[in-house]
What we know:
Helices cover about 65% and strands about 0% of the residues. It is built from 6 helices and no strands.
Amino acid sequence: MSMRKNKRRINRLRNRQTPQKVWFRSAEEQAWLDVAPVGREFGSPDYERLQILDLYALGTISSDDALQRLGIDSLDELNQQMRRR
């Protein structure tokens, strides 16, 4: 069997067994496709404030820590910022 015929035979088998888009996707391309979406705070001028509010919403930091880091005095104001974000 000639080299050309053998190559065609292999390509036919490959195309029949796996979809072409999966076959040609490299590990790097798959890594880019699997990246988690970027949050809303990325590129925002209020990045630090939004990050603190996110940590407070997740329960990572307490309300006292959030109040101190944001430089506000009342819990009501913190809750207003949570609704406004």
